Each structure stands twice: as structure tokens, then as C-alpha cells.
């Protein structure tokens, strides 16, 4: 029997919340399907679930695909290795616009973050609907972007982090040596909805492939500014126990770092699609230095 809940939109283009989601028992298959349907429609879905257990967190993640066991970030330990701990006290931060791990050949399709410790103020997260941003482009720009690809490179934010003293030189060398970069289409089609979305971010995308550098910089600068329009955006002010699930295929996000010296601790699961992804499958499971919400 399905656990009843209702879906309340939080924005005209992106964002909704699940109301009266009952976690007293095991999540039914129908409930998981209903959560997925709400996520696909609204792209970011808020669950108010302070009682959620790690087992329930993993059950939701497993519904979507194969949860990641992260190489560098700590996790909850035996039996819960797929739940990563993101803690500002450990220096973890993601205050930049990005798709999670877009430098991989097949990045995660869904990410979900559960609030454990929150600062007294601040620490909000913002999401942008890249489908809505694409829809608002002119027909000529859509035609121009058709077939173009851009390079996503993990080294780009690591260089900035080193310059600002956020990471040590040793960590920088360790991460850069992995050479995590991949070429992706600038416009991707969602496998479930068929909607097109821009697949770029100012954090990981370094340049557009096979066009002059000056043209690449100009086009990317325009697209990044276009995506920042407030009508494409959803901002969540966290309450303790909130979980937000977002569609990493069609949104970028930014975890605002405005709460120092207070602590912000999240439990996170990122999910890969279950279908084979050629010889890079192992590479995905061992993804290094992913950013988080």
C-alpha cells in the first residue's frame, strides 16, 4: 500500500515539497515511484524528514540507481558506505555553481542531501533549472549550440581552491594527478522527459571544443549570465532533518558559504545510472573531489 503524500510546488519552474510523507514503516515501491515522478517534474524535491534513518536514505538512493561510495570524503561506515558525510568543520564546501561530478564520463543522475547540523543563520542552497534556461534561449542560439561540446575539468576549481588557500598544495597535486576531465554535449536530452537542458557550469567547464578561444569565452560568459536569471532559480532555507533530492541531469546548484564560523553537516548520496558505462565504470565509482551541497 502506498504511503500517501502530496506535492506542493515551491516555484513556477523548479522546486516542490512532499507534504505528509510518512516514514513510520518501510517505503513502498509505489511511494518511491511517486517520489521519482515528483522529482522528474519539479527537478528539486524537498522532504521534511527529521526521522529519516540511514536505511531509508539508502532505500531512496537505490531506487534511482547505484549509490556512489566516495573515495575521499568520509562516510557513515559499515553498511552505510554510500552515505557521504559533508561537514564544514572538515573543510568541505561547494559554494559554486555546478553539476555534481560533471568531469566524469557518466556523472551521477540524482543527488540527495539530508541536513544533520545547521548554522543558526545562512547555509542555504540554490538550484537552477537548466531546462528552463535552455527553453528561454532564442531559436538562433539553440541552433548555434546544437552539436557543440564543452570540456568539464575537475582541475579548474582545484586551482582556484589552491589560490584561495582552501586546499593544501599536497591535496592539489593529489587531485590534479588524476586528470579528471571529459567532453560533454552542451545541450543534453533528459532520458525520461525528452526535455533539453544546458549542460554547462562556470565551475567545471573550461572551454567549448573546436571553436576559437575568444568565441568560447564569449559564448560561455553569455550562457552563464543567462542561466543566473532569478526566474530559473529555487532557493531552499534548510530546517534540521530536511532532505533535498535533485536531478543532476538538469540542474546546477550552489551551497552558499555564509555561515562561518558555524558548522554545517550533511549526509549525502549521489546515484549513478545502473546501465553499463563502458570501461569508465570503475572510474565513476572512484570519483575524486566531488563537490556537494
UniProtKB/TrEMBL annotation:
The keyword Oxidoreductase applies. InterPro entries: AtsK-like, TauD-like_sf, TauD/TfdA-like. The lineage of its organism: Bacteria, Pseudomonadati, Pseudomonadota, Betaproteobacteria, Burkholderiales. One of its GO terms (molecular function) is metal ion binding. Residues 274-293 are annotated as: Disordered. Belongs to the TfdA dioxygenase family. This is Taurine dioxygenase. Residues 7-269 form the TauD/TfdA-like domain. It comes from the Bacteria. GO terms for cellular component: cytoplasm. Keywords: Dioxygenase, Iron, Metal-binding, Oxidoreductase. GO terms for biological process: sulfur compound metabolic process.
